Amino acid sequence: MQDNMAAKRLPVTGALSDAADQTRVPRALDAIEKAAIIVRLLLNEGADLPLEDLPDDLQVRLTQQMGRMGLVDRVTLAAVVHEFAEALDGIGLSFPHGLAGALTALDGKISAQTAERLRKEAGVRQAGDPWARLRALPVADLRAIAEAESIEVAAVLLSKLETAKAAELLGTLPGPLARRITYAISQTGAVTPAAVGRIGLSLASQLDLKPLQAFEHGPGERIGEILNQSAAATRDDMLTGLDETDAEFAQIVRRTIFTFAHIPARVAPRDVPKVIRAVEQDELVTALAGAAEDAGTQEAANFLLDNMSTRMADSLRDEIGEKGRVRPRDAESAMTAVIAAIRRLQQEGEIDLVTPEDETESPE
């Protein structure tokens, strides 16, 4: 009988509790206290919050406030959650905070010159994780940093890179320097996160101070691209003049030049069918017919014919025989079209060209 009476009292007790909650007034909280409640609630639910992206001072305030909160009653919790949900529901569009954030959001959308001018006028640096910016640099730029900085800084830089990129960077450094940096890594066990952060900021600040380049590619590559499209006589004359003026620079230009005669050394045999399909049939026949008559390009013509299907090669040989002798100007124009097709396939990611190692002479 007593158990039955107790059971009958339970709903009454629950109803009284709900009524008490309805009459209770939520605690008055400031913004940081509400933020602490929301963060604690989300963490309890297993949410992965990127709190490390917050400014350091805000991380400190949030952590300190969470340590002072103690217990929060259900009415206050419900009020904070309701306010938070309403705030989220009312957001229509979010803009980055400050000019630095706006410049980061518009990176690649406005000209580099405009972005640089705005940064200088406002006195702001590029926002974001400095190490993320450094890891995105090409290996050539990372090598310049490693060679210019102290061994200890270079060791930290190498340690913060992805393994594959670190290995590539190490392979480009002179042997003695690479060995010193490798040994210095063994001495970085006691380096603090704060020190690593300061090093990252210091290195990234050098990127902000680096003057903008007017041209995307170096002078050797630009001249090489121009000479690729030039007549053979003009190209040979220019290279001869460069040899007399600056032999070292002439060597750089030669490594960037890619003509019909370079095809066997630069194109993989498996990619020849793709090249054949990318060139107009008449231009291909003209290029092969003209190349077959020149000792300097005959090897390239044979290379293309030998690495396509037998039926296609036989058909092209028949067309070459029917075409007869072609004018040198027409042959050169057709060979330039073949090279343009190869370059286009490379830019589209369809093929990869073999990179020349120590070529100092272009095929004659």
Overall geometry comes to elongated
Give the strand content: under 5%
Low-confidence stretches: 1-16, 358-364
Spatial extent as radius of gyration: 34 Å
SSE arrangement, N to C? HHHHHHHHHHHHHHHHHHHHH
N-to-C span: 112 Å
What does it look like?
- Helix content is 68%, strand content 0%.
- It is an all-alpha fold.
- Helix 9 packs across helix 11 (175-185) and helix 18 packs across helix 20.
- It is elongated, with a radius of gyration of 34 Å.
- It starts with a helix and ends in a 17-residue tail after the last helix.
- Mean pLDDT is 82; it is low at 1-16 and 358-364.
Give the topology:
Elements: H1 2-23, H2 31-44, H3 56-68, H4 74-89, H5 98-105, H6 112-122, H7 130-135, H8 139-148, H9 151-160, H10 163-172, H11 175-185, H12 193-209, H13 219-228, H14 232-245, H15 247-256, H16 263-266, H17 272-278, H18 281-292, H19 298-306, H20 310-323, H21 328-347
